[in-house]
Amino acid sequence: QVQLVESGGGLVQAGGFLRLSCAASGRTFSSYVMGWFRQAPGKEREFVANIQRSVGATTYADSVKGRFTISRDNAKNTVYLKMNILKPEDTAVYYCAGSSGMWTISRAYNYWGQGTQVTVSS
Q: CA–CA separation, 23 vs 41, rounded Å?
């Protein structure tokens, strides 16, 4: 089992950047595929990106491809989401999550953090 805690959210102007971090507890972090999801008010939670167990394969939602980069450091039990060229439509609560596979649907993820708010002003 793994516990996840996100950090790094905040208020930023459009065109700016943020880096989210997700720290995991437990010795099995490297055995999980890690993903980032987001949920805006009144909308369903949506997939943002995920990364394979070892540093390597990644997947991105079309809406963030080319702007966001997911990475992980298994030695630090941490997964990151670097977000560049932020847009107002990126405003949401961002969650990290752990899964057994490279899924893009939220119900395939068993472990979730509490979320961190990202607000992009125009």
A: 25
Chunked in runs of 10, what are the mean pLDDT values of the chain (122 residues)? 94 98 90 96 97 89 98 95 98 97 96 97 96
The label of the residue with tokens 């119900």 reads 107
Q: DSSP labels for 17-60?
A: -EEEEEEEESTTGGGSEEEEEEE-TTS--EEEEEE-SSS--EEE
Torsions phi, psi for 70 (to 5 deg): -100, 140
Residue 112 has what pLDDT?
Answer: 97
Helix %, strand %, coil % for the chain, to 5? 5, 50, 40
* Residue at 2: amino acid letter: V
19: region left, alpha or beta (phi > 0 left; psi from -120 to 50 alpha):
beta
